[in-house]
Amino acid sequence: MKLSRLVGLNSVVYLVFGVLCILKPLRLADLYGAAFGPGSMLICELFGVFALGFGLVLWRMRAVPREVLQLLAWPLAVANFVGFAVYLLALSFYAVNPLGWALVAVQCGLGLAYLACAFDRPAVAAKV
Question: How far apart (Å, rounded) are the C-alpha atoms in residues 92 and 128?
Answer without folding.
Answer: 58
